[in-house]
Design brief:
Layout (H helix, E strand, L loop, with lengths): L5 E9 L5 H9 L17 E7 L2 E7 L9 H15 L3 E7 L6 H13 L4 E7 L6 H14 L5 E3 L8 H11 L17 H16 L8 E10 L5 E9 L2 H8 L4 H18 L3 E9 L7 H6 L10
Helix pairs in contact: 6-8
Length: 304
């Protein structure tokens, strides 16, 4: 029965580290997007599916918008704006304590050109970090810059205000049949999700530029008779020196990464996981079209 049903797409956009992945995971109710303290960690448009009443809301978590320098970064920014262009509703997320940065101003200017006729809402995140009067002033100033349909004060991490945002989004979805089965939470292939989980653990353990110089690919996924899964993954680094850093002393770092990734995957999949990691050097992996396809990005966008 499709009578009374609603379904549509919502794009979450904003600067890197604004809390988009945290909000997506909160909306969906499980972990489908990596969350770290480092910026620019989301590389692909990850769709998470949430149900609110008779509405199915398909969230598109986009890479953070920033000024790209390298091919990979240009492809990430193109993916972000592509997600916004495909959505029924766009939600701009900003951090309450950072206010209106130069990056936020640039995004708002781009929204004027790219979001004509589209419903755009503002979500001010991390509201617990500022006083109420500062928050109200920020909301007023943002609405002077752009005619947002609605403004929401939220804490994606703690869940404050997220329910109100979800209910409002449900009402904005076009009428029509649901786009995904009721029990599906994401359209990201499990092989890619598994690789993203491992990359998150690497990002949390490694420092400075190294997380942005590596990628993770799931080479094989073997379903076993006992219900468990064997997953073989390769961590590609761009320099010989990086391989030793990822491995760590006597392999301690990569072992810890594997243990943490396996625990997350077992919780998500509700089954036993056998995870095997290898580290390989590919000097120019950021210039290989195949690597971009594995990440769900368009290699050609890196030329723009």
């Amino acid at each position: 029965m499709t009578e009374g049903k609603r379904a549509g797409f919502v794009a979450l956009i904003g600067e890197p580290n604004a809390g988009k992945s945290t909000l997506l995971n909160r909306m969906v109710g499980t972990k489908i997007s990596i969350v770290t303290h480092k910026v620019q960690t989301t590389r692909t448009r990850i769709r998470g599916v949430a149900i609110e009443g008779d509405a199915q809301i398909v969230f598109v978590d986009t890479p953070g918008l920033f000024r790209p320098r390298r091919r990979l970064e240009r492809a990430m920014v193109a993916a972000a704006w592509g997600g916004a262009a495909d959505a029924d509703v766009v939600v701009l997320m900003i951090e309450a304590h950072r206010g209106i940065t130069a990056g936020v101003t640039e995004i708002v200017e781009a929204l004027r050109a790219r979001a004509t006729g589209r419903t755009v809402a503002l979500a001010i995140n991390k509201i617990d970090k500022v006083k109420p009067d500062v928050l109200l002033e920020l909301a007023a100033r943002m609405n002077e810059l752009f005619p947002f349909e609605q403004t929401f004060m939220i804490s994606a991490e703690k869940g404050h205000g997220v329910g109100d945002l979800r209910k409002w989004l449900a009402g904005q979805m076009p009428r029509g049949p649901w786009l995904y089965p009721e029990d599906q939470i994401a359209d990201l292939p499990m092989r890619m999700l598994a690789a993203e989980i491992t990359r998150e653990k690497l990002t949390l353990r490694l420092h400075q530029e190294l997380p942005y110089q590596l990628t993770v690919e799931t080479e094989s996924w073997e379903e076993r008779r006992d219900g468990s899964v064997r997953i073989d993954q390769v961590i590609y680094v761009s320099r010989d020196g990086h391989k030793g850093i990822v491995l760590g002393h006597k392999g301690e770092t990569v072992k810890a990464v594997g243990k943490a990734a396996r625990a997350d995957l077992e919780q998500i999949l509700d089954r036993r996981i056998h995870l095997f990691l290898q580290v390989r050097v590919r000097l120019n992996w950021q210039e290989e079209a195949e690597r971009y396809s594995e990440m769900g990005l368009d290699f050609r966008d890196g030329n723009r």
